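Researcher: Structure prediction, please.
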Amino acid sequence: MISRKTRLIKINRGLIAETGIIPMGLKFISDSYSFKPIKMEKSIAEGKGGQEVTTFKITGLFQEADKENANGRIYPRGVISKAVEAVQEDVKRRAVLGEFDHPADAKIHLDNVSHLITKVWMDGAKVYGEAEVLDSQPKGLCLRGLFEQKVQPGISSRGVGDMEVKESNGEEYYEVLPGYTFVTWDVVAEPSVSGATLNVMEGLNRVLSPLQKAKPKLRKETYEKALVTEIKSYFSIK
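Model: Predicted structure follows.
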């Protein structure tokens, strides 16, 4: 049942990301969009032991306020603006991790992490963000591979809040209420977002299938190293 009352409940984003537990009276809200990158860049940074490492970053449109999305929801600009402001501290602490293909809950699953949100800001009704691709991780490597192959996945916001039903021109829609909080933004591959992304990932899954079947017989370190090798080969990443 959708609440028709605006209720402001204190939300601890970090605790939700860690446990997946949503405060009573609130809902898990997830929405997917076509990701529109405006910049992709590689930079050299100093890694562990003083070695140079390549950092791959993407910048683009994350979502829009005041516009009905595919799920029939509208995020008012004032609500989104407050949510973007509230997540800034965690972004600065490099604590907002995103996953490759979002889960069905609010918890961040570390074995599925692919990127780190490094900047989030608003320009008018649009939410823009920057993410550092964690290509030392298998899922991050998959994400980098998609972008280097010029295949654009979608992006999905995960958040916690409440909604109410409203009506415009005889049509009902859900309006996200004040107090909404972002948990993260994930990368997604869905039919409504990008068929090309699905085709590439289906091909990768076929390549990885023999290794995944052998996983129970392998040490974790051996499996992950082999996984990274296969993904690099598939996307021709050096």
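Model: Confidence is low (pLDDT under 50) at residues 1-6.
Researcher: Thanks, that helps.
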